[in-house]
Design a protein that fits this description.
Elements (H helix, E strand, L loop, with lengths): L12 E7 L5 H12 L10 E7 L6 H6 L4 E4 L12 H11 L8 E5 L4
Parallel strand pairs: 1-2, 1-4, 2-3
Length: about 110
Amino acid sequence: MADAQVPTSAVKVSIVVISKDEPALSDTLDLLGDQIGKIDGLRPDEAEILVVDASSGRLDAIRAAHPTVRWIDFERPEGVRISIPTSGIGACTMRRAKSSCSPTVVVFQNPDG
């Protein structure tokens, strides 16, 4: 599925949610969308939500229900036992976050706590 189209120059805030088979991900995305709408001085086109997902398509229904969320399908590198290694996730996602091109805020949210 293609990323939702957000103009790169407009994005000031990127929120990254790391997920693997998280059943409450839909609720999290709904709440994040609501909170973004409450930030004074921030237009909806100035924020993006990215999901880095290691669920191998098992959350496609959640993806389809949130068309404005950008989805990054994480594929575990060969020989690595951890599904989403924290050391590499930041660099990979920062390259994909549209806000990384200008002075911005990037927030990582790991549902495991």
